[in-house]
């Protein structure tokens, strides 16, 4: 190289720029046959401290010759060396020198035309020369540079574009390096700068345009159209309003859109160039007003929009678990380098096919490696519980005859169909565990028989039918109140000896006069409902507590304890949270919750006429989403593995801590009649609380687990979980100061709140009531 003394102005300027700005991403290209470039080149050599020089031009020329004439490799080495020397001539002037100021490196490369020949040689014939030339004319835009970084670099390596526009407002954080392939020394740099630099270091001739402020309403049109409109938009941004707005404009400009979701290899292709009328995101957001999204303040308000775009039901189990744990054990959505890198390759491949018009399809697709390459699934265990068929009228009549229950009192009243229907309506409005409505009423020979329909009652958390017996007690209280206000005297008997099939029989007589209390409570029957809201904590006055205690005392043996101390309520919330998680983690309990208790759509609710519709749960959008995700058993298994479930702890703790009090009704023993009487006392309290303007939310899962733990030796819990239940029950009994001879039967939150707008459905009369032959 010539030893030419030169001014240091250029180098000083570049050095100062590098020190002052983190935004430089364009290298300096110097061709030494140009006198001005020669001067600049010498300035760098003479004045730079620590500059690294990389000159492999001979090796590159040798590769070029092999690309141009593949058989040249058979030429003797001395001849090859001569051919290289002959082609290079003045080696320092051959090709181009590229200076990268951000790393202070000077690299000698083939000039653009020859560089491209060698760079793309290994693409042949996966990509033909004609296709490579076509791709070099294409303009691609990438929004979002976490996943988008991998996409952009893969596109650059394949030389899949002529111009790349990249947009991201963010700077690199340390946590980003779990999926963004870059150096830790780049922390704090703009992501656009990092990507543009890395592309320049791969190929300094590719055109990269940076939108360092990200995409905004003001610059989106510029991003899509400046210097000619994009041939493809690749969307990898996190902002849902930008996703939608960009698609709206892209559709109008007939620009195809590609999006890779990294979870389950989710791919969205929208060929707006081929179908300008195509619904945005395959029609998944058409029911939403996306113009409102940017004005929404809370995450909960945004949930319906986010779920519509991402399709939460199709997330992987681990991503669903992460969604539940968001803002409890993790602070943001997880992504892995393997998934992001995989997505970058897939996106670059699809980009090429779309730009070459060899792929014309639109839609959402999944390249889920967990499903494509996996071990054989373990077959589900055979169900050991025999499915019960609903009781028929013939069954009921045969049972009554078999047990000589048909004889009636000659003085009893034969109720009209209208009177019977009024009583049935009152029974129907009673609460039941999981809204299973396990009662079956049959009227024959002036007697009304109350049966337990085991087909409705069989459930993991209904051990020995205790929960259903409590529900039947609630139904009996409603029936008695409805009869009282009709001036009917009721002679009734519990039939525990015939349990679980037959539970009570009623006869009716004229001449009763309802008490003020009965009139008051009966009026609450249509108003009473389960309310799960969390509202401002309001104290319950002693006089109201005394009223509720008086109602309970009317049932022989029944006791009620009311806990108002916030520390005790917090402990109860922790016990309730733990047992609720047990309910999710135990496969049988989870299966019951998913299939027997919950109803996931309005249509499903209306068809079954039982169960708890998700729309009735008084939940925020965020919490309702969490409940929806519980349907995935694989997600539940993973949640248990990571000791997750903090979101449910948050929800239940909030519900408990906003309560005025937590109440517990107990009875002296665990006989069938005690559970039924416990239900009668519970319904009195519930109706009484409704009359006082309070809401009730039953929280009986801990009690049912305590009971199962005490009676079932083969309870499907770990020894650790069983030990927890034993110790939790001890703490529970201390909180409520419960005597040893009392059995806990009904625990509830009591609080002030507005009524729930949606109520659980009730079965049609023909499903629960029949009239037999005289």
Automatic annotation (TrEMBL):
Protein name from the UniProt record: Rv1355c family protein
InterPro entries linked: Nitroreductase-like, ThiF/MoeB/HesA, ThiF_NAD_FAD-bd, Ubiquitin-activating_enz
Source taxon at top rank: Bacteria
Alphabetized CDD domains for the sequence: E1_enzyme_family
Cited PANTHER family: THIF PROTEIN, TRNA THREONYLCARBAMOYLADENOSINE DEHYDRATASE
Organism: Pedobacter ureilyticus
Coiled coil segments of this chain: none
Gene3D superfamilies: NAD(P)-binding Rossmann-like Domain, NADH Oxidase
């Amino acid at each position: 190289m010539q030893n030419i003394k030169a001014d240091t102005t250029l180098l000083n300027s570049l050095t100062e720029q590098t020190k002052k700005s983190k935004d430089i991403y364009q290298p300096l290209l110097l061709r030494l046959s140009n006198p001005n470039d020669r001067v600049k080149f010498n300035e760098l050599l003479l004045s730079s401290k620590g500059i690294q020089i990389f000159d492999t031009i001979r090796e590159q020329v040798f590769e070029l010759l092999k690309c141009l004439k593949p058989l040249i490799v058979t030429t003797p080495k001395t001849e090859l060396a001569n051919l290289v020397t002959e082609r290079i001539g003045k080696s320092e002037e051959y090709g181009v020198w590229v200076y990268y100021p951000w790393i202070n490196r000077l690299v000698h490369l083939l000039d653009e035309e020859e560089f491209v020949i060698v760079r793309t040689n290994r693409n042949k014939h996966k990509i033909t020369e004609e296709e490579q030339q076509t791709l070099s004319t294409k303009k691609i835009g990438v929004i979002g540079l976490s996943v988008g970084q991998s996409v952009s670099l893969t596109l650059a390596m394949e030389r899949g574009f002529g111009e790349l526009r990249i947009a991201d407002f963010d700077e690199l954080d340390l946590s980003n390096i779990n999926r963004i392939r870059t150096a830790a020394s780049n922390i704090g740099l703009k992501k656009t700068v990092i990507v543009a630099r890395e592309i320049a270091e791969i190929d300094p001739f590719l055109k990269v345009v940076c939108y360092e402020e990200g995409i905004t309403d003001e610059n989106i049109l510029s991003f899509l159209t400046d210097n000619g409109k994009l041939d493809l938009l690749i969307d990898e941004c996190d902002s849902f309003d930008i996703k939608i707005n960009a698609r709206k404009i892209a559709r109008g400009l007939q620009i195809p859109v590609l999006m890779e979701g990294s979870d389950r290899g989710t791919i969205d292709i929208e060929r707006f160039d081929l179908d300008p009328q195509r619904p945005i995101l395959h029609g998944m957001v058409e029911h939403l007003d996306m113009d409102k999204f940017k004005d929404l303040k809370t995450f909960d308000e945004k949930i319906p929009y986010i779920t519509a775009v991402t399709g939460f039901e199709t997330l992987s189990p681990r991503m669903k678990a992460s969604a539940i744990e968001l803002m409890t054990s993790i602070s943001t959505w997880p992504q892995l380098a393997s998934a992001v890198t995989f997505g970058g390759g897939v996106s670059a491949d699809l980009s090429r096919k779309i730009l070459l018009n060899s792929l014309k399809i639109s839609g959402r697709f999944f390249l889920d490696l967990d499903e494509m390459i996996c071990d054989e699934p373990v077959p589900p265990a055979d169900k050991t519980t025999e499915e019960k068929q609903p009781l028929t009228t013939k069954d009921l009549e045969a049972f009554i005859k078999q047990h000589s229950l048909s004889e009636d009192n000659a003085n009893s009243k034969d109720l009209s169909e209208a009177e019977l229907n009024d009583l049935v309506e009152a029974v129907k409005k009673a609460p039941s565990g999981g809204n299973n409505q396990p009662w079956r009423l049959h009227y024959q020979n002036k007697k009304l028989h109350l049966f337990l329909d085991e087909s409705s009652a069989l459930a993991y958390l209904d051990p020995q039918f205790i929960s259903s017996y409590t529900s039947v007690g609630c139904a009996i209280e409603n029936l008695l109140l409805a009869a009282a206000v009709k001036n009917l005297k009721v002679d009734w008997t519990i039939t525990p000896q015939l349990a679980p099939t037959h539970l009570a029989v009623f006869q009716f007589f004229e001449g009763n006069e309802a008490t003020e209390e009965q009139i008051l409570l009966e009026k609450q029957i249509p108003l009473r409902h389960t309310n799960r809201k969390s509202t401002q904590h309001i104290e319950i006055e002693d006089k109201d507590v005394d009223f509720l205690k008086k109602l309970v005392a009317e049932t022989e043996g029944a006791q009620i304890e009311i806990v108002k101390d916030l520390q005790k309520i917090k402990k109860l919330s922790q016990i309730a949270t733990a047992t609720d998680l047990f309910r999710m983690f135990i496969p049988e309990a989870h299966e019951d919750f998913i299939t027997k208790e919950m109803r996931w759509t309005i249509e499903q609710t209306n068809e079954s006429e039982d169960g708890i519709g998700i729309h009735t749960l008084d939940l925020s959008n965020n919490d309702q989403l969490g409940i929806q995700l519980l349907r995935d058993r694989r997600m539940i298994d993973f949640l248990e593995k990571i000791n997750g479930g903090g979101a449910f702890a948050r929800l239940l703790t909030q519900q408990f801590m906003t309560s005025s009090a937590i109440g517990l009704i107990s009875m002296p023993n665990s006989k069938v009649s005690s559970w039924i009487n416990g239900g009668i006392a519970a319904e009195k309290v519930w109706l009484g609380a409704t009359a006082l303007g309070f809401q009730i939310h039953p929280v009986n899962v801990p009690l049912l687990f305590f009971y199962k733990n005490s009676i079932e030796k083969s309870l499907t819990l770990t020894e650790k979980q069983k030990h927890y239940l034993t110790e939790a029950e001890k703490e529970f009994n201390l909180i409520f100061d419960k005597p040893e001879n009392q059995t806990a039967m009904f625990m509830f939150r009591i609080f002030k709140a507005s009524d729930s707008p949606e109520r659980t459905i009730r079965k049609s009369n023909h499903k629960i009531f029949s009239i037999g032959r005289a």
